[in-house]
Amino acid sequence: MAYAEGSELVVVGSGSLGLAFSALLALAGFPVTLLARQQSGTELLQKRVIRLEGALEVEVACGDGPASPKRVAVVSDAGRLPSAEGVVFTTKAHHLPAVANAVGERYRRGGALPSWVLGLQNGLGKESVLGQAFGPGPVVGATTLFSAERRAPGEVLVTGIGTTYLAAAQDASADPADPQARFLAASLPCEIVDDLGALVWTKLANAVGVFGVSALTRLPSIEVHRRLPLALAYQALLQEVGRVAFAEGVAIADFPGMSLRTYLDLGPERAAALMGERVAGVEPKFTGNSSMVQDLERERSTEVEEVFGRFVERARHHEVSVPLAEFVYLILSGLEQGSSTQSLEQEKGTSHP
Is the CB of residue 134 less than 8 Å from the CB of residue 10? Predict the structure, then answer.
């Protein structure tokens, strides 16, 4: 199958990551089309601007019609997506299979796949999902430490300009240097790493630790590292992920912004102390909530299955004990079911006392 040429980029998902990446790529001069859900797309078309605040102060126009440099095109129908050089999926992990299939079908019918496709979701398995939708050729392994919170339609609080990591091609996959060049041009820190397995499991370990502690306490993510008891809880979850990763034949590694190998090697007390030192001087404006806390507070579905469910499944497969992660998984699953029930009752106009 032929591959598309040109510099057109597509970002899928209008949450905090999708809005931020769209705005920054457009500001760098790339034509960007944002695929949003119907309600979000309508709100963006009415607002006509994407505004980033906090660690970044950026404002970019958005609207209907073809994308152009410094203006994001907004569509809500995958069939209206233009031919594209690259596609960045920023949706939640539990939404990825359906939306990847819809976007993949649009390009398969169009006869030209994007040159590269990547997903920035948490959890395990997103490369497989994208490979099923697009074939393995264009898929680039990826993850990001960029952190942000959507405050209102078109408005995002950026709490951390973390690095986006791309995995070097293991076979016939797309060249990660292509998306890296686009991200760097948009002032998005980006690095290519050799080991996709280490990248995926290191990010998973950080997600299990941060989500596990922040979602149960409802505290900003930075407090997980700042308060000694919470840092010790994070470290305990990290150790469980490290044991399962070892059983998978993967070593947790150190990446800029994710010193997880160091934390494991130091042991709980010294690692917790180092975490506290590293966040001691962080300004309050960079202390947003984790994405899972944001979802729980807004009574939205979370990535609990993709992060904790799949991790616990792998642990059981290898017969590795992970009691803390299993406990967090049960609690978060219960919270999500309660939120879903409450939301459904509100839609029906009923509620329990």
Answer: no
Distance separating alpha carbons of residues 304 and 97, to the nearest angstrom: 16
| pTM, to two decimals | 0.86
Q: How many CA atoms lie within 13 A of 121 on its CB side?
A: 29
Residue 105: which H helix or E strand, with range? Answer: helix 96-110
Question: If you ran DSSP here, which 8-state letter would residue 284 be given?
Answer: G
Domain map of the chain by residue range?
A: 2-194, 198-342
Q: Each residue of 96-152: pLDDT tens digit?
A: 999 999 999 999 887 789 999 999 998 888 999 999 999 888 999 999 989 888 888
Q: Where are the beta strands (DSSP E) in 194-263?
A: 254-255, 258-259
Tokens 């984790």 correspond to 290
Q: Which residue has the higher pLDDT, 336 or 107?
A: 107
SS3 call for 252: coil
Contact, 16 vs 156, CB < 8 A? Answer: yes
Q: Which residues contact 269 (CB under 8 A, 6 or more apart)?
A: 232
- Rounded to an integer, what distance in angstroms lies between the CA atom of residue 190 and that of residue 299? 32
Separate counts of helices (H) and strands (E) for the chain: 14, 16
Burial class of residue 58 (count of CB atoms within 10 Å of its CB; 0-12, 13-18, 19+): middle
Instruction: For domain 198-342, say whether CATH 1.10.1040.10 is its number.
Output: yes
The token pair that represents 278 in the structure block: 């590293």
Structure tokens at 139: 């898929």
Which CATH class for the 2-194 domain?
alpha beta
Distance CA 207, CA 225 (A): 13
Q: 63 has which bridge partners?
A: 73
Do the first three CATH levels of 2-194 and 198-342 match, i.e. the same topology? no
Task: Determine the 3-state secondary structure of 23 from DSSP.
Answer: helix
